[in-house]
Amino acid sequence: MDFNDLLEKFKWTDFEEYIKEEREKLERNVDLLVKARRKFREKILSIDNIDDRLFQVDEKYFKRAVEELRRGEVTGVDGTISFYPTPVGYWCRIGVVAVNYMGERLNKIVYISDAQLIDTALDNIGEFLKNVEELNRYTPLLYRALMFYKEREIALDRGEKWKIVHGPLIPLEMRLGRLGVGGVLETNLKLAEKIVENRHIMGVLSSTRRLRILNLGYVLENGEYLKISDLGSLLISEIRRAPEEERALIEDFVEEYGDKVFVGIYKAFNKAYVFEASREFFREAAHILYADSLNNPAKGFPMLIDYADSLCKTLVNPEDFKRKLEYELLKKEGYKAFQALDERRLRWSH
C-alpha cells in the first residue's frame, strides 16, 4: 500500500451521516480485532518449544507468593523527581518510597533528598553561560540516573527477602556515560552487578516502547506469563549508537551477567506487563508479581508499586516543590523574582 491507497481508505463524510453508522462500524472493527487476537494466539501456541516459554500460574508457587506478601517479605520501591530550571542551573528534589505489607495493611517508609547543580562562578560571563548550557543539557538525565540508582540501592539495602522496583532493573539512564560528569556509567554498572547478583530483585514496567513484547502480551490469558529473552540480548540491541568506550563497558557487563536475568511478560487481568527477574528465580518472581497484581484488579499491576507511586505523587509532589520554591523567591524579590525558564522542563517526572 502506498500513500494514495491509504488516502482512499479514508472515506470522508458529513458528521451527521457518520454518527448514524458509527456503532455498526465499531462493532465490525472490534469483531475483526477479536478474530485477529485468536489467530495470533494460535500462531504463538504453534511455535516450537513454546511449552518451555509460556507458563500458567502454579497453585503451589502462588500460595507461597501470597504468604510471603502477607508476612512482609516483599517490598515495592518507587521514586519521583522534581526539577526547577533557573538561569544558573537546576534545583532538584528526589523522593523514594518503600512499601510492604504488614498483615493485611500496607506499611511505608519515605526517603527524600534535594540538591542543586548551579553554577555560581559569575566572574567570566562567557564561561558561565557555556557552563549553564552544559548543565541544562545533561542535568535532567543525570538527575534521573541518580533517582534510579537510589531506588535500586535502597531496594538492595532493605531487609525484605524480595524487592520490586518500578521500571527496568537497569534503566537506560543508568546505561549512559554522556551525562556531563565522570564515572557515571562505571558506577551504575557496579550497582547493576549487585542487582543481578542479589537474584531476589525484580523490575516491573508500567509501560514500554518495545511493541513486539507488548504484542506477545496481547495474546496471553489471565494467569499466564511468557519468557521472552535474556536481558543481555536487549541491552546489546540498544547500544549500536553508543560511543566505543561505553559500548565496550556494556558489552563486558553483558558477557558476564547478560544471561542471568530474563525478560518476561505476565497478565493478571486485562493488561499485560513486562518484567525482569533473575534467571534462577524467574518463576517465583512471576508468581509474586501476579499475586500482588490480584490486589489491584483495576490495573492488574502490583499493588506495592502502584501504592508507592501514589505516595510519591502525594508526598513528594513536583508541583508542590515548584510552588514552595516560587513562594520563597517571591518573598525575597517580589515582582522581580525569577520563575522557571520553561514549563516544558518541569514535566520530567517518574
Structure report:
With 350 residues, this protein is of the alpha+beta class. It contains eleven helices and nine strands. The protein has helices spanning 3-9, 15-45, 59-70, 125-157, 184-198, 211-218, 231-237, 244-257, 282-293, 303-315, 318-333, and strands at residues 54-56, 74-86, 89-102, 105-118, 162-166, 201-204, 224-230, 261-267, 272-278. Strands 1-7-8-9-6-5-2-3-4 form a nine-stranded mixed β-sheet, with helices on both faces. Helix 5 links the parallel strand 5 and strand 6. The longest helix is centred in the middle third of the chain and has 33 residues, at 125-157. The two termini are 39 Å apart.
Please give the structural blueprint:
Blueprint: H1 3-9, H2 15-45, E1 54-56, H3 59-70, E2 74-86, E3 89-102, E4 105-118, H4 125-157, E5 162-166, H5 184-198, E6 201-204, H6 211-218, E7 224-230, H7 231-237, H8 244-257, E8 261-267, E9 272-278, H9 282-293, H10 303-315, H11 318-333
Parallel strand pairs: 2-5, 5-6
Antiparallel strand pairs: 1-7, 2-3, 3-4, 6-9, 7-8, 8-9
Helix pairs in contact: 3-9, 4-5, 5-8, 7-8
The total count of strands amounts to 9
CATH topology of the largest domain: archaeoglobus fulgidus dsm 4304 fold
Category from helices, strands and their pairing: alpha+beta
Instruction: Label the CATH architecture of the largest domain.
Output: 2-Layer Sandwich
Principal-axis shape equals: globular
Strand order of the largest sheet: 1-7-8-9-6-5-2-3-4
Using only CA atoms, what is the Rg? Answer: 24 Å
Question: What is the CATH C-level name of the largest domain?
Answer: Alpha Beta
Number of folding domains? 2
Mean pLDDT: 84
Strand content: 15-25%
- Helix fraction? 40-55%
Number of helical runs? 11
Distance between the termini: 39 Å
User: Mind summarizing the main beta sheet?
Assistant: 9 strands, mixed
